[in-house]
Design brief:
Distance between the termini of chain B: 71 Å
Shape of chain A: globular
Number of helices of chain A: 13
Structural class of chain A: alpha+beta
Oligomer: heterodimer
Shape of chain B: elongated
Distance between the termini of chain A: 36 Å
Number of strands of chain A: 6
Order of helices and strands of chain A: HHHEHHEEHHHEEEHHHHH
Helix content of chain B: 40-55%
Largest interface: A-B, 83 and 53 residues
Strand content of chain B: 25-35%
Strand order of the largest sheet of chain B: 1-2-3
Strand order of the largest sheet of chain A: 3-4-5-6
Structural class of chain B: alpha+beta
Radius of gyration of chain A: 27 Å
Strand content of chain A: 15-25%
Largest sheet of chain B: 3 strands, antiparallel
Order of helices and strands of chain B: HHEEEHH
Largest sheet of chain A: 4 strands, antiparallel
Radius of gyration of chain B: 21 Å
């Protein structure tokens, strides 16, 4: 017999009240402001915006505060918020070539036009904890220097001049995939795949990217270029028929260059993996580019044997909001399911014992 | 002016206003010292703009995320209608841009707005960009070749 039960209202109410208290913590310490989070935990906000798939720094800061710093919970909050908003339309494609570059490095060309600009990077730090940050010391103002005015040309354009590298990547002019509007289907176009990777979990994609370097889908990658900076978002206003700028967003772009020995379809050349993500997040952009390249195995006629090459596996498990939802739902009451399973296991054990007994002269019956 | 350049100027003004900081815009608006009666035709309302990039930087477009955006449409007493869309959730900013867009349909007002609002905002943005550019340039690597000890 199934008996519906309910309960826990007061417990839930009090749990949430307790959560609010613990979130605030020691009342003798000042409460964090959203501005402090947005400015001083900027890269956490970048990650929440990227995987929450909504560019809004203040909302990301609010989500981080509400989630007590649990970034996946914050991403979940941002995703939930986005479902409450109407969609005004699509932007014009951003032009990363016209970026206000804040960092730009290439591992393939030392003296490329525009140069290697390190920007605000953790690279070359010694990873020693800095006790001075425990205080409130004001850092020195950054050094400034007159630039040489040489625009930072794309590394892919340098190789393209010799015909040694494939073109940017054309999907064939059909409709642009949008996984927020149409359910995912496999195999998917590279456009939809890049959309899924852009919002995918950084840790998951990092591990898969790493696996390709360790031999699970060897792709001989070089960082052709990483660039970080602000780009303008342009939008065609339907009211006026005019294309206007709506503001700027900061993005990280990674051009991975991969050796390719050629196939029946294409001559030996360099191929490319591409990563584009919100904010300053080159680890994520690099992981996306590695996965993008590995997932092009079919297109390039390569052997498929590694997890990172399996589109359905990678894309279906890259979304951490889906993943956490399904994993965490296991802790919700499954009392009835479990009762049914308990009953089943008891019956199976009974049958097992009877069968064993039949084979071995039924010791229980002999007593 | 031809229709084309009128449209172009309007788009440039809308872009400059959208790119500006909301607080700076409000300060300059207050400095203008006018308070025209207007009717909100739409909004200000917040929604999402789906953002597009290009595969490989210059290939086929793809969607790579969304951004919050706020839009507004106003009608002034003289019948002029102004529109605005800007990234973020600043409703006052969207409303002010729409009002300025409507006001700027009057030529005399347009040059006042350009002079007292658009030009200073554009200059502030250019100054910020130049500062950041110089800070980035200071992190540029200057390679030099080690001289080997062979006479």
């Amino acid at each position: 017999m199934y008996v519906a039960v309910k309960g826990g209202e007061a417990a839930i109410r009090n749990a949430h009240r307790l959560l609010a208290d613990r979130r605030r913590g020691d009342r003798s310490l000042p409460s964090l402001t959203l501005g402090q989070i947005a400015e001083q935990l900027a890269l956490a906000c970048d990650r929440v915006m990227a995987e929450g798939s909504v560019y809004d720094r203040e909302l990301a800061a609010l989500a981080i505060k509400q989630a007590r710093g649990d970034l996946i919970e914050a991403i979940f909050l941002l995703r939930a918020y986005r479902t409450t908003l109407p969609r005004f339309g699509y932007s014009e494609p951003i032009d990363t070539g016209a970026m206000q570059v804040e960092r730009r490095v290439s591992a393939t060309y030392k003296d490329l036009p525009g140069g290697q600009m390190l920007g605000p990077t953790f690279d070359y730090t010694h990873r020693l904890l800095d006790p001075s940050l425990a205080g409130d010391d004001a850092p020195d103002d950054p050094e400034a220097r007159e630039g040489d005015g040489v625009p930072a040309m794309r590394v892919s354009d340098i190789l393209a001049q010799e015909g040694l590298i494939e073109a940017d990547g054309e999907t064939g002019g059909e409709e642009i995939g949008d996984l927020t509007r149409t359910p995912m289907e496999f195999p998917m176009g590279r456009d939809t795949r890049l959309q899924a990777l852009a919002r995918g979990d950084e840790g998951f994609l990092l591990a898969l990217g790493y696996s390709t370097q360790r031999g699970y889908a060897r792709s001989h990658p070089f960082v052709g270029e990483i660039r970080i900076g602000e780009v303008e978002v342009e939008y065609r206003m339907p009211e006026l028929g005019l294309t206007v700028s709506l503001g700027r967003i900061r993005v990280t772009e990674c051009q991975m260059v991969n050796q390719f020995k050629g196939s029946a379809k294409a001559p030996p050349q360099f191929t490319r993996g591409y990563g584009l993500v919100f904010g300053q997040s080159e680890r994520k952009a690099m992981a996306v580019a590695l996965c993008d390249r590995a997932l092009r195995a079919d297109e390039l006629g390569e052997d498929k044997f590694a997890p990172a090459q399996d589109e359905e596996f990678v894309i279906s498990h890259s979304d951490n909001v889906q993943a956490t939802g399904f994993v965490e739902h296991l802790k919700l009451p499954h009392y009835v399911d479990f009762q049914a399973e308990l009953d089943l296991v008891r019956r199976m054990r009974g049958e097992h014992a009877r069968k064993q007994g039949g084979d071995e002269a039924m010791p229980e019956a002999a007593e | 002016m031809t229709d084309n350049s009128v449209e172009e100027t309007r788009a440039q003004r809308l872009s400059a206003l959208a790119l500006a900081d909301g607080k700076d815009l409000l300060t300059l608006w207050n400095g203008l010292g006018i308070d025209p009666a207007c009717e909100m035709v739409r909004g200000p309302e917040t929604g999402l703009i789906a953002l597009r990039g290009r595969i490989g930087g210059g290939g086929s477009p793809f969607n790579f995320g969304e951004a919050t955006a706020t839009r507004a449409t106003v009608r002034l007493d003289n019948g002029a209608v102004g529109h605005a869309v800007t990234l973020g959730r600043d409703r006052l900013k969207a409303k002010l841009i729409a009002i300025l867009d409507a006001l700027a349909q009057d030529n005399e007002m347009a040059s006042k707005i350009d002079q007292e609002i658009v030009t200073p905002l554009t200059a502030a943005l250019a100054e910020r960009d130049a500062k950041r550019k110089a800070e980035t340039a200071a992190t540029k690597v200057d390679f030099f070749t080690m001289v080997r000890g062979e006479d």
